[in-house]
Structures are given as C-alpha cells and as structure tokens.
C-alpha cells in the first residue's frame, strides 16, 4: 500500500516538474505578448507602433499577404534545404576521405574549419558573380548561387563532426575488430558509420538554423529579388515596418519548424541507442 | 620528441593544402580571365588583389583602396568588439542566473533556443528605434548574437559537474559561494571558451551585415558600395580577404586567451 502511495507521489512530483517546464515558458510568452499588445512594451523600449507594430496588426498583415509570404517562404526553404542536403552529403564524404587517409585528411580538415570563421557575407557576392553564366533565367542562377553559399556553411560543420564520429570510437572496439581480422571496409561500415550517427545530428543541429540564416543572408546579395530575408530588407528600406515584421514572423516559423522536424527525425532514428 | 615531429608534419600538411587551395583559385581565375569580359568582377588573380593592396591610386575621398578598407575595418571591429564584450557579460550572468534558479532556466531556455532563429537584420529597426543611434544598434546586435552561444555553453558547463564532486563539496560543508567559486565556475571555463569561439566570428559577421543596412561607414557599407561600382571592385576583394582573416584571427585569439587563462590548457602544452 505504502509503495503504491509512494509511487503515486513520485509520478505527481515528476508531473508537476513537467508541467512547470511547459507552463513557465508559455506564461512568459503570453505575458510578453500582452505587454506588447497593450503598448506597455513600447513605453519600456521607447519605441512607437510604427517600427514595432502590435501583434494583432502583424497577424493581420500576415493573413492579408499570405500568397506572397508563402511564395517567398517556399523560395527560402528550397534554398536552405537544398544547400543543407548538398553540404551535409559533401561534408560527410570529406570526412570519409579524411578518415581513409588520416595523415593528409586531418590537415585538410584544418583548412575546412578555417572556412568556419569566414563571414557568409564575404562568400555570398562571390557566388552571385561566379554563377552569372550558369543560366539565362535570373531566378535559376540566383537559386544556385544561394544554394552554394548554404552548402559551404553546412559542409564545414558536417565534415568536422562526422570526422570526430568516425574516429572517436569506444575504447577497444577497434582492437576487437582487428583481433577478429576484420577488413578495413568492414571496420568502416560496421563500426565507424554507426558510431558517426549521433555526431551527424550534432552537426545538423548547428547547420539547420545556420542554413536558414545563410539562405536569408545570401538573398540580400542575390540578383533575383525573392525570399523571406530579401523581403525583410526590402520592406525595411521602404520603411514598411509592419510588412517587414510579417516576414520576420515567417522566417521565425521556417527556422523553428525545420528545427522541430530535425528533432523528430533524431528521436526516431536514435531510439534504440538511448 | 615524437610529438614535436608530428606537430611539424601537421603544419606541413596544412601548408600543402593551403597551397592546393591557392592553386585551385589561380586555375579558376585563369579560366575566367579567358572567358569573361570583366574577370576582376568574378574571380581576379590573387596577384591582382595583392597588387591593389599596395597600389597608391586614389579610389575615393583621396584614399587608396587599402586605406579605405583598413579605416572601415577599424570602425566595424570596434563595434563588434564592444558588442562582443557586452554579449559575454550578459550571457555569462544569464547562465549563472539559470543555474541558481531553476524556474528562471525553465522560463528562459526555450526562448534562448528560439532567439537564434530570428534573423539579425530583422532586429535592426527595433533596436534602431529604441537607441535612436545606428552605431549603438550595431553594437547591440553584435551583443545579441554573442550572448546566445555564451549563455547556452556556460550553462552546459555549470551542469557538467558530476554528482560525486557535488557530494564531496557538501560533505565538507562548503557554502554555496564556495561551491560556485571552487567547483562550478572552474568547471565551466572550457565550455565558456567554446561559446566564445563560436560567437567571436559571429559578432564580426553581424557587425558587417548591419553595416550594409544603412550608411555611416564600416566594412559592410563599403562592400555594398564597391559591389555597386561606386568605387574600385578591388575594394570588395580586399574586404572579402580582410573579413576572412579577421574572422579566423578572432577565433585564434579566443584559443590563445583560453591557453593563457586556463591551467588545463597550459598542462597540455
């Protein structure tokens, strides 16, 4: 009896912990929105409703401009996702090559990681210029240029993390493989590849938000005017702050949405490991 | 001894890769020089860029290209640096607060995750409306970008302490203050520096990016002017290299600082 009571108490405690995990941030968010809508936030920040429109107005603008917001969001998602896939595959491949030839590969990865510190804004205009002759259609060639920028940012984090995944093996697991006279390819596919999966997700957690942000930054320098990031900038330049805010909201939804999808995929694919 | 030779060969390997990269660039530049009408806009030879650094031709405002780049790099770096320091302070304090009070962590942490999804340029007009000063808003945006990685990494560091270590501190009746100064804060130093290494190049990127939004000097401002052919295109190429070098140096500076500050790194060397 007492055991049941104890476990009841325990689940109750866990539940209250879980409830506060959800409830506190939600309450905080609601509080901020109320302060924002009622104009108290504006007084604190000394801002006006022109540059910082109230949430109800932003929602109104979003619903009014739904078709064009969707069109621009689709363009941004295409760039971010395409670049993410290309970059991650390339990064994984580079890590494989570096693992196969450790002496030269590790040095190559040092160079790759130096790219990590190069600002995206330096790369974006170069790519726009490089792809000028790729296609007659400015939309297609801008799309390629933007994808290349995203690809570079994603390649870096994937190659570094996957390389660690291939090489930070459990102690003795490599010796075990040797002792049973496993071939190099067997070691690779049975030991290194499975070991790299969690590291792949570490890389993706960095590069998914990164891909959205670099897609938006590369839009600023692209020839063809499309995409959420470009629309934010265009509307700010035109002093249409409310419309710019609607696109900021869209960018936010894209970023958070992609991140949640990634978390779900990670949860599904790592289920047996935890 | 063996370690030393290994280190040397590592340097050699990196150097060879670097040469390879230069080679690829030069081949690309040669191909483009033969196929395009204005190759300097697409991919000039590295030699041409180096030459433009040392050329004394006036580009605009009676300044040579390199003078323009360097003076504007100074402006941008100054803003990025101030924003970076503010971001570190805020991020560190926030991590400490989150560790001290669990409800604070539960309330703020989800928003910390989301903040990185908001495009930086989107925040520029709000910040501008508040500060009424473009310079201040650039600093604040660099600070916002810095504070997120510092806060999350420092918090992870504060939580990295094992249960046994905590129990030991409790068993010798350490006060909360001692617990933090003797155990938790030293434990979070490597994590803190991981945050700094991520955010130092980001603060610089942010500062350059905000430059492009409005006039008033700075690397980003010059970059967009040069792209619009308001001045020599080589200003653009110099900015590309300067920002790349500065980004890498800012990372290396954090590595150096970590070595100076932390005993565990000195022990390694």
Write a structural description.
The complex is a heterodimer of chains A (274) and B (269). Chain A is built from 11 helices and no strands. Chain A has helices at residues 2-37, 40-45, 55-64, 66-100, 102-115, 120-130, 138-167, 173-179, 184-221, 228-237, 241-269. In chain A, helix 4 packs antiparallel against helix 9. The longest helix of chain A is centred in the C-terminal third of the chain and has 38 residues, at 184-221. In chain B, helix 3 packs across helix 11 (233-261), helix 4 crosses helix 7 and helix 7 (134-158) runs antiparallel to helix 9. Chain B is mostly helical and 269 residues long. Chain B has 12 helices and 2 strands; from the N terminus they run H-H-H-E-E-H-H-H-H-H-H-H-H-H. In chain B, 83% of the residues lie in helices and 2% in strands. In chain B, a hairpin with a 2-residue loop joins strand 1 and strand 2 (63-64). Chain B has helices spanning 2-35, 39-42, 46-54, 65-100, 102-115, 120-131, 134-158, 163-171, 176-211, 219-227, 233-261, 263-268; strands spanning 58-60, 63-64. Chain B is globular and about 75 Å long. Chain B has 2 domains: 1-43, no CATH class; 62-268, Orthogonal Bundle (MetI-like fold). Chain B has a two-stranded antiparallel sheet with strand order 1-2. At the A-B interface, helix 1, helix 5, helix 6, helix 9 and helix 10 of A face helix 1, helix 5, helix 6, helix 9 and helix 10 of B.
Give a quick precis of the structure.
The complex is a heterodimer of chains A (274) and B (269). Helices cover 82% and strands 0% of the residues of chain A.
